[in-house]
Each structure stands twice: as structure tokens, then as C-alpha cells.
Design goal:
The protein contains 22 helices and 26 strands. The strands form 8 sheets. Strands 1-2-4-3-5-6 form a 6-stranded mixed sheet, covered by helices on one side. Strands 8-15-12-13 form a 4-stranded antiparallel sheet, with no helix packed on it. A 4-stranded mixed sheet has the order 9-11-10-14. Strand 24 and strand 25 (627-628) form a beta hairpin. Helix 12 packs across helix 15 (500-518) and helix 15 runs antiparallel to helix 22 (648-669). The protein is globular.
Length: 685
Amino acid sequence: MQDLDAPLAEDGSERAGVYLTNALTGWEPRTSKPLPLPELEEERDWAERVKQDTPILVILGNPPYNGFAGMGVDEERELSDAYRFTKRVRRPEGQGLNDLYVRFFRMAERRITEKTGQGVVCFISNYSWLDGLSFTGMRERYLETFDSVRIDNLHGDRIISEYSPDGRTSETIFSIRSKSPGIRVGTAIALLSKSAATAEHVAGGNVRYRDFHEAKAEDRRQEMLESLDASNVDAGYISLHPDVRLGLPFKPMAVGEDWFDWPALPDLFPASFPGVQTKRDPFLVDIDLDRLKERVTDYFDPDLSHEEIARRYPTAMNSSSGFVVRNARSVRHALLQRGGPINSGFIRHAYRPFDDRWLYWDEGRGLLARPSTDYMPHVISENLWFSAAKHLRQGADKSQACFLTKSGSLHLIERSGSLFPAWLRGDGIGNEGDDLRHANLSEAAQRYLDRLDVSVEDLFHHVLATLHDPAYNEANAGALRMGWPRIPLPGWPDGEADGAGADLARWAARGRELAALLDPDVPVSGTTQSPLNPQIGVIAMPAKIGGRNLTEADFAVTAGWGYYGQSDAVMPGQGSVVERNFSAEEGEAMGDALPTLGDRTFDIYLNGEAFWRNVPASVWNYRLGGYQVLKKWLSYRESTVLGRRLSLEEVEHFRDTARRIGSILLLTESGVLGLKSPLRNRAIQ
């Protein structure tokens, strides 16, 4: 201030208007507790005079992100209450409103719109509130109280491994070269403004949105700086018209025109189940049955102390793992008293897409975090299951539908999906057995199928085909982020459209082809079984540098595909790939499949010598359930993770999985599954 020739008075009657204070409290007159130092009390009193008596026109900042912030004092607890109730939009779901940054938003919104009556709020924050279902009331309120909402989406979500449009990793905006910022969530800048002319306010009439999605944070920051030179403050923004049916998202949302006319999955298949969650995967799940049995046998050995089990298998004695009973010693003691292990508890388990393993399942309380005891009785022979999620964090334009006939993990797909069966086990009346099964159908779905004279399995496979249709996923990516998939059905709900039964049966037949390709246990002629389709038979050929013959000694995966992170979680590594053009022989064999499978291919290395030759780009990058399938599989097979080299069968499994993916892409991308029901793309903005 002295340098500006405006020094503060020397008698102490003036001070800089900068205060040390809790920004969330002190805005309303309350009786304050004494503080230990008079200087702190004086600082608090100065700050509260400003908060309560001074008109504030601008509030800006970077509020803290903490989803487990606790409840704080009464004044803080009250802050998020205004966002927990809605008028038109769906009620908030989940726990997102407990995040600390939400309290700062409410503090600022209340001060500008309710106290001063005009002004600006500008925060950079976690971007989950833009479309998260926990924040529907928050968005509804802003549409009512602010004249203008401008959103700059800065992306950079490392929790979901967000990628920029060019396929590179999207760095957090705070990333500085050679330094880790610590922040992993995606971020956005919100500029919320209100003028004094409130009588002219039109609720929801002015929401603008733009993306800054360069891969490198420094490039993104540079583009943001350059945007300040624009003569028009709204340059680069698009206007949004948030749809109440989708939860009033503050992001562009792609949704087909007929989306809300179609039945949602629970309207067809009313029963669904979360998959199994152990919270002790390193102990209870294994690729090798012998190793799993050895661990579990030790666990049930009364001659081994709790301390010895904890030394050998730390995860087994973890006493604070989410839903797991906290006292792991008590859990083991009770199970030892019961006796075990249960021989029938060693079961095949769909752990990740195309990655089946062995699981020890035990309904005894506490060993598994979520044993899903209501789910397992329906895992019966000949039953069919697919996965789906109510809303998605990423990959909404890609399929989330795994197909399985065995038990499945809660994290079979990235977004903790649900498993929908075609059949349900009987109600317990009569003899035990699979013959008691009945169709998992709503009354409306049963009437529809009866009129078309088709079966529940026809409907099941039609749904599977739909969920793998690229046109469907792309046209409805926004809606799939916000709610259950909805399924276009010919002639729904009365089934009276001409040819409806034949159309559904045709799509169901394609769904059965998909189911076979998605099931690693089912041989598929032309893809994994001779005679091979020439376009597929050249994919992922096991090879060795120099054309030498492969031996079992070459099957160790040491190229850096995976490693153990915190809590024994397996993390993906960079691995070793060589991108190249197709050879003349490969290009000739693949022929007209090249536009679908990609114009480039990769050689995927196990180690410095052995590799799978010719994994086309679209096959290598293929994602299912939010996971890059082949890379995810490899991350668990790194020798330091797996504890051994691959077997010949596992080398062939990778090859066959790549070929299955190639066949899936050819089947779906060719338009065979294109639905007659309108899938015209309309971005709800």
C-alpha cells in the first residue's frame, strides 16, 4: 500500500482487508466461544463484521475437495441441506453432497443471492457436481437463483483414467512438469453471476459450457490464458438447456429422441444383484486353484495362530476393510469353530472381462465383505447373466455389458455394476433343483413376450445385442451416464407392430452370436476354432524375435505390464508395444476388415524376445465395462504379480481373446445390429 502512495494509518485504526478466518462460519450472528488468544478473538471479530455487515460482490477461490470431511460445527452442517431437496428434478442420490467443496458453494451462493442480491461466484473445484446424481438439487437451485452459469470443464480426472480426444492421458490441470500435484479428481471452473435486476431473471435460461481438454496441463493452461483475449466473454461457449429428466446436467448430454419412450432395464428384468465383493481379493481370489486352496486350507488350520496367518497372508487378517467385520480374529475364530473350508466354495468367477478366476466363496459372516448371499442361489446351471450400471463415470459410449454364466465380481465392470439374470431360482416350494427356475420378467415384459410368442432368452439376447450396438451407445452416451440403459423394443408395449416378433428374434440371434464371443469358455468356429476366418486368423500370432521357435521359457511376462500398488492393488504399467503398419500379408488377409479393425497394428511384447504379432489398433484399444481388456489382462500376468510365467494355455487365451474382440468389432461395427427403431442422435444441451 505504501508503494501505491496509500499507506495505512500509523495509529492502527486501519488494516489490510485480509483476514484469517473459517470461510464457512460467522456469516450469521451467533454466540462465539472464547478463543485462547486475544489476537485471535480480534481477528475473528474483524472478519465477522465484514461477513455480516459489508456487501460482498465477489467470492472466488479453490475450495478443498474432501469427500470424507465430517460434519463440522452446526453452521457448517446446515450449509448443504438446501441441496438435499428438489422441486422438479429427481432427488439427490449417493453421498456426494458430503464433499467439503459443496459447503463452500452453498456459503457463496447464499451470500451473493440471498444477502447482497447481486454479484459473482467463481470457484475451481471437483467437477463431479456438473452431472453427478448427488447434485441434482444443487444444479436446480443455481438455475433458480443465478442469472448466468458459465462452466469451463478442465477435465484431468486421474481417478477414472480420463483421456483427451487425441487418446493421450488427460493430466490434472494442476500438474507441473516433474512434480506430482496430488490432486487426482477432474476439475472445472464455475462462474455464477446474478444481477440486481432480479425481476428479469429467467430460471435456467443462461447456462454456457466449454471444454479445455488438451492432454498436457501446461497446454490447457495456455489455452485458458489465450481465451482471455477474446473480445466476447462468451466466445467458445455453447448454450445448454439442462433436461430435468436427466437430472439437469451442466454438461452436453447425447440422448436419442426416443430414449424416454423405451423401457429401462429394471422395467424388463426386475431382479438384479450386485456381484461378489471380497475386500480380500489377494487372499480369496486366484488365477491358480492350487494356490487358492493352499491359502484357504491354512486359514482353516486350527494349529496355525492368528499371528501366523497374518504373517503369511496379511489381507486375510485385515480388520478394517470397509464392510468386512472389523475384528478379523473374531471372524476366523467363528469360522474355525464352524469347521471348514467348504469344498463346494471353490468356484469359477468372472473377475474382469475375459478374465475368469477361482474364488473361495463362503457365506460365513465377515470373511467376504459382500458375499451376496441373495445372489448366489441364482447362479445355477444354464442361467444367463449380463452386467449393467445405473449410471457411469466413464466410457458411456462403449459397452458395459459383460456376458457370464458363472458368479461375477462387483467390479466386473468399472462402475460397480449390477448383474441381471434371465432366470431366477424357485421360491423353495417343492423339490430343490434348477427345474424350479422362473423367468426374471416384469408383468409388462411377460405380456409383451407372450404376444410376440418369444422367450425370456430371446429378450435377454436382444438386450445384449442392443447394449453392444455402437450406434445405440454413441447416440445415448449422455443418458447412459445418468440412469439405467433403456431398451428399444419393436412394438413396445403391446407388441402389435407388424413383424415385431420376427425383428426381435433376428436381433436375439445376433445377441446369441455375441454371447458366444463374450464367453471365454465357449469355442467359436471361425474365431477360436478351425476353420478360422482369414481376417481373424492372422490376429495376435505368438512369435519370437528373429522368427525362432517359442518354448515355455519364453512365456514370462517381464515387459512392465503391472505392479503392486497400495494395499496389494495391481496397477497397470506401460508395458512394451511396437506400433506399425500392417505387413502386406496381414493387409491382404484382413481385406475389408481393415476399416473396422484400424489402419495401424501393434506387436505386444511379453518380454524382450516373445510377443503377439499383429494386434490391430481397434482390438488393442477395445474397452468393455470401462476396462481396456487386453492391457488389463496383461497387468495381472506380469511375472512379479503372477508369481510364475504364463502357461501355453494362457498365451493362447490372450491370442483367442484378441480374436474374439476382432470378431465382436466386425459383428457390431458392420451395422448388422443397427436397429430399426430410431436412434437419431440429439444432444440435449
